[in-house]
C-alpha cells in the first residue's frame, strides 16, 4: 500500500479544482487563513473482505475539512462557496474513482462501511470561528497486506 502516493493524489485532486487558497496535508494547529482552505487528514485504516486468498484489501478513510471564516461578507455566500468546493471535489472523485490507479475505488456508497459524504459544522481556531464542511473520503486498496499461513 503506497500511503504517500495515495495521500499525494488526494491532495493533488483538491489543488487542481482551483477552489482553495491552501491545501494542507494535516489538520491545522492554528488559524487556516482568510479564504477557502482544505485540510486533509487520516481517519480510519482497516482490512476489508476481498477475493484475494494470499492478500488483504484495506479501507482507508480520509477526512477533508474545508474552512471559511464565519465573519466573511456577504454572509449568504459563505455556505455557497463551501458547497461549490464540495461539489467540485466530490465530482472529481466520482470521475476518477481509482485516483489514477492507486486504489481499487472510492467507496461511494459505503459498501465497506461509510460512503462518500460531507457534513457541515463550525470550527473555532485561535478564537476565530470558521464555517466548515468535512468530506469523508473512503478508498479501497487491493492487496495491501500479504497474508502468511
Return the structural class.
alpha+beta
Look at the structure and give the CATH class.
Alpha Beta
Distance between the termini: 20 Å
What's the tally of helices? 2
Question: What portion of residues is helical?
Answer: 10-25%
Tell me, rounded to a whole number, the average pLDDT.
Answer: 91
Any low-confidence stretches, pLDDT <50, length ≥5? none
Total E-strand runs: 6
How big a fraction of the residues is strand? 35-45%
Q: What is the radius of gyration? A: 17 Å
The number of distinct structural domains comes to 1
Shape: elongated
CATH homologous superfamily classification: Phage minor tail protein U
Return the string of H and E elements: HEEEHEEE
SSE inventory with pairings:
Blueprint: H1 3-16, E1 22-24, E2 37-48, E3 55-69, H2 76-95, E4 105-106, E5 117-125, E6 128-146
